[in-house]
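Researcher: We're reviewing a set of sequences before deciding which ones to prioritize for further study. For each one, I'd like a predicted 3D structure that I can look through quickly. This is Pyrroline-5-carboxylate reductase. If possible, include the structure in token form so it fits the rest of the review sheet.
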Amino acid sequence: MKLTFIGNGNMAKALIEGLVSSYEIEVFGRNEASLKALKERVPQITTKVLGELEDMTDKNIILCVKPYSLPELAPKLSGEANALYSVLAGTSIESLATQIKAKKYIRTMPNLGASHLKSMTTITGDECLKEQAIDIFNQIGRSLWLSSENELDIATGVAGSGPAYLALIAEAMADGAVQQGLKRMDAQTLVTGLFEGFAPLLANDNPADIKDGVMSPGGTTAAGYAAMERGAVRNAMMEAVADAYAKAKELKAKN
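Model: Here's the predicted structure for Pyrroline-5-carboxylate reductase, in token form for your review sheet.
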């Protein structure tokens, strides 16, 4: 099966690297130098600078551009695609259908884990494409089919934006260790190992149970945990998800 990528930014690159071993891939982009660099990095793909009019008839498109660029881009895509898989945050299927012709539509939200085959991708859209969409995005990690676009907008603030939130946590923990006297490289090694070991724990246990299993009465973990509660880390995380959802709805209203 052939997949046609429109866009070659960071998310597109992550997806391409994850999917190239299982699918034939062609990539349309606007920057020739960027496309050349991508081709050198992933030689199995074909690339083309997006022209004024490109025939998308019967293609399986993965639309991977910034939402604000869609009105300028859409008129350049002619014909009726077989399927359109959109990775645009806050852009509804209804809006996509008025701008790009396709027989079927899917909205997805992968994350940057795709380049390591570890994306957590949320999907919604035409039910007839459910199995195919899950099969495509399972190639780059795990996928979850959601029953509505509203649920996908909520999930964007967790799975889509989540790597940035976790990167902040990782950076802060390493900075804390350095502040107390640990070498930067050692601090980074500790944090990396921590995240690697935490994933299987979370896959099998409730977060509250993990916390209770580590926190001894009056111990070091209890002291550190209390500091995070004083700093309102829990509330900040919940607000991050809420604000990301609000932004997704705002984008959808504009698009």
